[in-house]
Amino acid sequence: MQQQQKTLTLVMVAMFAALTAIGAFIKVPLPVVPFTLQIVFVFLAGSLLGSRNGLLSQFVYIGIGLVGLPVFTQGGGITYVMQPTFGFLIGFALAAFVIGWLIEKVDEPTKKHFIGATVVGLFLIYAIAVPYLYVSLNFWLNVQTSWSHVFLVGFLNSIVADFCLAIVSALLAERLYKVFRSARALNISQMKKEHVS
Q1: Residue 182: what pLDDT?
Q2: Cβ atoms of 41 and 19 closer than 8 Å
Q3: Largest CA distance in the chain
Q4: pLDDT value at position 180?
Q5: Among 41, 79, 84, 97, which is disulfide-ready with 20 (CB 3.0 to 4.6 Å)?
Q6: Which domain holds residue 179?
């Protein structure tokens, strides 16, 4: 039974890594920072897989991109860390972890818990992505730009749409949560045992 649960967990982690990759290619081209649906799968990964496995799903996605597979919006490879949008990928991993952690703190999460967690995750993503965008443009790519311009292209251009996606993702996660709950509960108990030992 435990082996089956571990296998199921690995499948779900891989599935959300793949969905995040697919989301990178469902996009609206915008200057500097294209708008994609990746963020939906980040929200769902954190909400449904929990903190540990939500984070792991994003690490898997980022890892396969950095080794060279073209799963990012503009390709792949280790040099992608120099891309202005790489901060969003770092933010995705952190957001998935924090969303999962917030949901795990509630015995019976409701709609408001999912919405609150995804909104927190959303602003964490931007808190990392916008400064990374500024540093990347000004120091690595030698594209001199102001904070106001970075704020416009990296935040204002997409925050409204992403906020709506956060709400929609939260409502969807609430409906799917029970399907994933047994696997999540087992993972949480295993984490506690490992922590005690």
Answers
A1: 65
A2: yes
A3: 57
A4: 79
A5: 41
A6: 2-187
